[in-house]
Predict the 3D structure of the following.
Amino acid sequence: MLYYLLYPFHTIFSALNVFRYITFRTIYASLTALLICLLLGPWAIRKLSRHDVGQYVRDDGPATHSVKTGTPTMGGLLILLAVLVATLLWGNLGNVYVWVVLLVTVGFGAIGFLDDYLKLIKRQSRGLTAKSKLGMQIVLGLLVGTMLYFRPGFETHVSVPFLKGVSPDLGLGYIFFAAFVIVGTSNAVNLTDGLDGLAIGPVTIASATYVVLSYVTGHVKIAEYLQIQYVAGSGELAVFCGALVGAGMGFLWYNTYPAQLFMGDVGSLSLGAALGTAAVITKHEILLALVGGIFVVEALSVIFQVGFFKVSNGRRIFKMAPLHHHFELKGWPEPKVIVRFWIIAIFLGLLSLSTLKLR
Ligand code: 57M
């Protein structure tokens, strides 16, 4: 909004010319989201506590989690507020991709909110059924895939990391591929959100990686130099991803061990879908499997655990899935699991950026 309000006056006050630059607006979107989370965090914790929106901790989890019972959750509402305000304030609202990514973030956030609401406020312990939750996500994912497919000039080619010149055209199949990326990432982040800061750390790191990927993909000269697909207008997603980084750091201030606030499904589902959508729009969809490798490994650990459990009449590969619980049951203190996952996430983010040159 500020871009519209202030940039036109750059002919009078030349300093306002700065609003033209995506880099400037990305930094200030990040700082705005960070400040909103930092300043409103205590109020959110008090409000959620007062309304008894406390976490119910299942008794079949690691024993160390029992102390977490009652921790205020649905803190994802604060993350969404910070990201929305910062993006609407600093983003170019004439850019269709900004609205697409905001629609997905709010849409998946609404699904998560409904699940949290039923579980925590209506005390229906299971919340939404897995089928209805997944069904709503798939509908939203297909809607976004269709919108992008029919957008004039949007490419249905998929670039493969490390392999220059390999970019198969999925045609109409791209709609389903885009939906898979968005829904898969949303659920993978949801599964990862099982220790203090374990999800928001890698989400923040992945968002920072997509700040860079959005910027270079939307810059015609840099995209040409790097020989990556140029997506006109996608650079504006750097502002949105910058807001994700700021909101993530601000939320982590309260979610770090021992957590004062959990994000809830309203946070995990929306953040995962936001990352998936940014990856689809910037045409770095497969690269997201590397950037968000922590989420992939966590989700695969569940798939293999449940699959093996079924075919082996009850035997397990891991002590418990998702993988973070396996390390907890091996005796790793919670903070050790969390920080080691963050270190791996940072490594994967840097490795992902290196693929821009290793082609
Ligand atoms: C998301 N939710 C956390 C919190 C957070 C099929 C199966 C793998 C599904 C999976 C599952 O239920 N996943 C749902 C994970 C929960 O966190 C809440 O959920 C929100 C995110 N969706 O924001 O509101 C618990 O996680 C802990 N937590 C923290 N700090 C945080 O910052 O400590 C969360 C955020 C919270 C808190 O204890 O209560 C969760 O784990 O439920 N199920 C599981 O993950 C369960 N694993 C399992 O069933 N494994 C079996 C299967 C695979 C056959 C096996 O290995 O044999 C584990 N989770 C729990 N108990 N809570 C183990 C059992």
Observations:
- The mean pLDDT is 94.
- Residues 2-354 form one domain.
- DSSP finds 14 helices and no strands in the chain.
- The pocket of Muraymycin D2 is lined by residues 55, 57-58, 60-61, 65, 68, 73, 190-191, 193-196, 255, 259, 262-265, 268, 302, 305-306, 309, 316, 320-322, 325 (CB under 6 Å).
